[in-house]
Amino acid sequence: MVVVTLKDYLIIADDFTGANDTGVQLANLGVPVHVEFAVSQLHQGSTVLDTETRNDSVTQAASKMAAVLPQIPWGQFDTVVKKVDSTLRGNISTEVRALAEAYQPDIVAFAPALPDLDRTVVNGVLRVNGKRAMKTDFAKDPMKPILTDQVTTLLQQAFPELGVAHYSLAQIRATGFTLGKAAYCSFDAENNQDLARVVSALKATGKKVLWVGSAGLTTAIMMQAFNVLPALALIGSVSEVTRAQLHAAEDNGVHLVNIPIYEAYANQTYAPYVDEALAAFAQGRDVILMSSASYQRSELDKTIKILSAHQLEADKINELTQAVLSGICRKVLQRVKVAGLFVSGGETAKGLLRIGKATGAKVLTEIAPGIPLLEIAHGDFTGMRVITKAGAFGNKDLIVYAFKKLKSRSRLDVQATASQEG
């Protein structure tokens, strides 16, 4: 019999909304979690503790932390996260210092980026919607304006007598990225894949880590702790809306497999595209299989021109496109397990179900207006969760959002998913 072990997480936030938006990352993966306002309310299981120190003075925040931290049963929790505001408001340096003294970690890791809300860290500087945080309204917050957008500065202020190492995007994205010997580290992150690499490198040390960041870091920790599978998308739509969604997904670290239909037709092989997808999955990345015409308008004209020269009319080109995309997707799914599938374009979705011998699909819920979540009935992919959408539909972040939904699990899912402890 396989024993399921649910680890306990402690997240310490400085305000109620921050506590909630981080706690929900656990709930999304089926982990029961409570938000508490006092240490006396802590109980067995994962907890988010709200200290309500965001708008306090430095002295007040230090006093509250000094009163709260000694009461925490640290041994009860497998992972401790200091949740900070993704725009760097609050008494971050003071609270991280106090928490490190109480928790006694081997490494303090500061990665505040929240790519899903376009809050990134590049060259050690926090940017909000592409603009330096110090040049946004957050620097003019009447209650608690940010004082710096330099992440290393905040960590250095917490530990002025110690050295702080900062890891750039180039270092994080390098093959075989590992950490040096520094115990106090800050990190760039431009997308969720960057955060995943940071978490992997920190876990590889085997050391006790105090995780300091926003909901983005918590999500990355949870995805790896629960071995959440990557997701796959199949895109056949050539609309401008879909094109924008593809570019947004690429910016967020999703790997795009570009499939020129005329090339697959000429070479009569799917192998290069299947191999590329499998290699990306092996790195833990989400993957999109797409026609080259979906990504670039000029490719649509090129596809029509080349295939027309082979005496293929518009309807036959469309049929060929669906057959190629569905065939490649089927071969990928035969080789790897995924969290679920996102399909854009009604004909693309029907083509995949047809080639997979499905008899239909069960409607589970709606993740957004007009965007249903289904479960495939019978055939090669029976039980697989699929999100479908019409081509010219949805905001630019829809694919990333859909992937997140595919990876969400209920409490029963978690209890049924075995994680073996040796």
Name of the CATH homologous superfamily of the largest domain: Putative sugar-binding, N-terminal domain
Any idea what the radius of gyration is?
23 Å
- Alpha carbon gap, first and last residue: 13 Å
Overall pLDDT confidence: 90
Net shape = elongated
- Beta-strand portion reads 15-25%
Tell me the number of strands: 18
Number of domains: 2
**Alpha plus pi helix count:** 16
Low-confidence stretches: 1-5, 414-422
| Helicity range | 25-40%
Structural class: alpha/beta
- The assigned CATH architecture of the largest domain is 3-Layer(aba) Sandwich
Main-sheet strand order equals 2-3-1-4-11-5-10-9
Broad CATH class of the largest domain: Alpha Beta
Annotated CATH topology of the largest domain: Rossmann fold
Tell me what you see in this structure:
Belongs to the four-carbon acid sugar kinase family. It comes from Lacticaseibacillus manihotivorans. GO terms for molecular function: ATP binding; kinase activity. This protein is α/β, with parallel strands linked by helices. It has 2 domains: about 10-225, Putative sugar-binding, N-terminal domain (Rossmann fold), CATH 3.40.50; about 230-415, Molybdenum Cofactor Biosythetic Enzyme, Chain A. The chain is built from 16 helices and 18 strands. The strands form 3 sheets. Strands 2-3-1-4-11-5-10-9 form an 8-stranded parallel sheet, sandwiched between helices. Strands 13-14-12-15-18-17-16 form a 7-stranded mixed sheet, sandwiched between helices. Strands 6-7-8 form a 3-stranded antiparallel sheet, with no helix packed on it. The longest helix has 22 residues, at about 315-335. The chain is elongated and about 80 Å long.
